[in-house]
Write a structure and sequence with these properties.
single chain, about 300 residues, alpha/beta, Rossmann fold, 2 domains, seven-stranded mixed sheet, four-stranded parallel sheet, TrpB-like_PALP_sf, Cys_Synth/Cystath_Beta-Synth
């Protein structure tokens, strides 16, 4: 049910040849969230047993698509809580696999906080079960038991830097836990949009495309200690990197992937003897209008801040 995704050598994008991109857009439902959805649905089935409650989840798109596509196999229906910033192409796809409820950001710190607040409210009503990616151990475990071992098989002991985006924290914390156990020489760098305040301190609007949060999630608070460093990348720079990567490699990636590429290319340039992997959460199909409207800008160094 979970695919093994390819590792792409980005030799045109970064000619020294020490930068690779793991293409999670090859998952059956189109993103890395497929892994988390499988693990969380398995955990939900164990917890609910024969109870047939309606599942609910706050989502910016990818997790909702994965959960909505897979939930019927487990006998569940899904209600996705979305905000008004979701790209229209993602919303169209979500509507084909789940029920939708859109919530305005009014009265909350940001759109995602509004979604989470409604999910929590509904979870206290009869007939609903909140999957809750922000606190689910299964979200983290998906990457500790699936993504991490798979990546280790692909790279052996050569990897030194792994760059991934962070929102709920499941991917970053799961991978950091895996490499802390199996190869402590690997530093996992978590990347959030500028304006997100998981680690950042200045709150500002940013695109709702899968990364960022107004505060550290329960996963990050409980399991974030193995993370080596964090960085913030503005949306404009993330979009620029996506456009540059497509121009040079012929692969259209999503916007959070662009933020990871910006940091990964910086690390690969400053550590030419080290293997660097950027984890690409999805392809860029759902963000075409946003990406096409962006421009390629001159890169500048982004601070990479140690968490140790």
């Amino acid at each position: 049910m979970i695919a093994e995704t390819p590792l792409h050598a980005a030799e045109n994008y970064h000619p020294p040849g020490n930068l690779f991109v793991k293409l999670e857009g090859e998952q059956p439902t189109g993103s890395i969230k497929h892994r988390a959805a499988v693990f969380m649905l398995e955990a939900t089935r164990r917890e609910l047993q024969d109870a047939k409650l309606e599942l609910i989840e706050s989502t910016s798109g990818n997790l909702g698509v994965a959960l909505g596509s897979l939930a019927p196999h487990y006998g569940y229906e899904l209600l996705c809580i979305v905000d008004q910033l979701i790209p229209s192409s993602k919303l169209d796809r979500l509507q084909r696999v789940a029920k939708i409820q859109s919530v305005p950001a009014t009265g909350h710190s940001d759109a995602r906080a509004a979604r989470i607040a409604l999910a929590e409210e509904l979870s206290h009503r009869p007939g609903y079960f909140w999957v809750n990616q922000y606190a689910s151990e299964s979200n983290r475990r998906a990457h500790l038991e699936s993504t991490g071992p798979e990546l280790s098989r692909q790279v052996g002991a050569s990897l030194r830097w792994l760059v991934c985006s962070i929102g709920s924290g499941g991917t970053a914390c799961g991978l950091a836990a895996w490499f802390a156990r199996q190869n402590p020489a690997v530093s996992v760098v978590a990347v959030e949009p500028w304006g997100s305040t998981i680690f950042g301190t200045h709150a500002a609007p940013y695109l709702s495309v899968g990364a960022g949060l107004h505060e550290p999630s329960a996963i990050v608070k409980r399991w974030g200690s193995p993370l080596a460093a964090h960085a913030q990348v503005p949306d404009s720079a993330a979009i620029s990197e996506v456009k540059r990567f497509q121009e040079l490699e012929g692969i259209a990636l999503g916007i959070t992937s662009g933020a990871c590429l910006a940091i990964a290319r910086q690390l690969a340039a400053s550590h030419p003897g080290d293997m660097v992997v950027a984890l690409s959460a999805d392809y860029g199909t759902a963000y075409r209008d946003i990406i096409d409207a962006g421009q390629i800008i001159d890169r500048y160094p982004f601070p990479i801040n140690s968490l140790k």
